[in-house]
Write a structure and sequence with these properties.
Helix content is 60%, strand content 2%. The chain is mainly α and 222 residues long. It is built from twelve helices and two strands.
Length: 222
Amino acid sequence: MTSALEGLSLHGDTSDLPALTRFMSDPRPRVRAAAAGAVAARADASSTTELLLPLLADPSPRVAATGARMIARFGRPPRIRVAVQEGQPLQDELEPYWGSAQAWTRRAAWTAARSRRGWLELVACLRLALDEDAALSAEGVRAACGWATRTSVAGRPAPAVAATLEDNLRRAHDGGLLPRRTADLIAFTGGLTRYPHQPPEQPRSAPRTRSRWAHLLHWRRR
C-alpha cells in the first residue's frame, strides 16, 4: 500500500486527492504517513496545509511529524492573525496543537510554525523553549539561539508580535533558559526591553575586631 501511495505521489494528479485523503484515516500509521506525503505532492500549497493540519494531532509521532514536515515544505504557513488593537493576543491557527497533551504534537506545531520565518519563527522557538517537556525545551532554546545568530530580519516586529516576544523572552530569561547574550541580542534587534544585569549580592564583611595590642595602643595614645 505504501508503495502504491508513493507511486501516486510521483505520477498521479489532483483527481487522486479524494482517494489519497481517505488513506489518511487508515488504521496503519505507515499508510497515513505515506498518504500525507502523496497529498503534499498532488495538492496546492493552501490545500496541503488544510488537509494535513489535523495530522499534527495524530496518535502516532511518525504521522504527526510527517504532516508537519509536509506543511513546512509544501504548504502555506499556518495562519496567524495579528489583531489591530494593541494588547490583543495573537490568534494562531496552530493553537489547538500547541496546547496538546502529546509532546510530539507540540513539536509538530513548532515544525509547521517555523515555516513562517522572521519574527514569527522566533515566537515559535521561544514557545517551544518554554515547553514543560525538557527535551522540547532544550530544542527550542537551541533554535532560538540559532535564530539570534543568523537572523537578518529587517524592521521591528508588529506591536502584537512584540508583546508576545516580550512576554516569552522575559519568561525564558527569568527561568534561566536562554543565555544572557542571546536574550540581549534578541531584545536589541527587536527593540524590546533589555534585561539589566543584577550582579549577585556580595556578602557583607564581618566588622573588624581590634586585637588586644591595638586596644592597649589606643588607650596609651589617649
